[in-house]
Amino acid sequence: MSSKRPQYPPEFRSQIVELAKAGRTHAELAREFGCHATSIGTWVRQSQIDETGDTSSDAPLSTAERQELTALRRELRQVKQERDILAKATAWFAHKSEADTPSTR
């Protein structure tokens, strides 16, 4: 049985990040708010990336870049589907066209 981790709202995450930046430990916040300390650490790192806007090639993606990447992947998947449908339709019409034309012998 797989356990799915809970999705925390962005407002909750930003409040936890602010508390962590104010000096509270991740373990302390995890006990108080019922989330994992590792999650808090991830949120704090992501917040720092978003704030600094580091665009070096080895830097993790910012939230905006992640959202853009997700949207681009979704769009690419849609375009591939459309391409495949058009290829199948073209093949079908080509086959139908050949079947409809009388052979000249």
TrEMBL record:
InterPro entries: Homeodomain-like_sf, RD_transcriptional_regulator, Transposase_8. This is Transposase. GO terms for molecular function: DNA binding; transposase activity. GO terms for biological process: DNA transposition. Pfam families: HTH_Tnp_1. Residues 62-89 form a coiled coil. Keywords: Coiled coil.
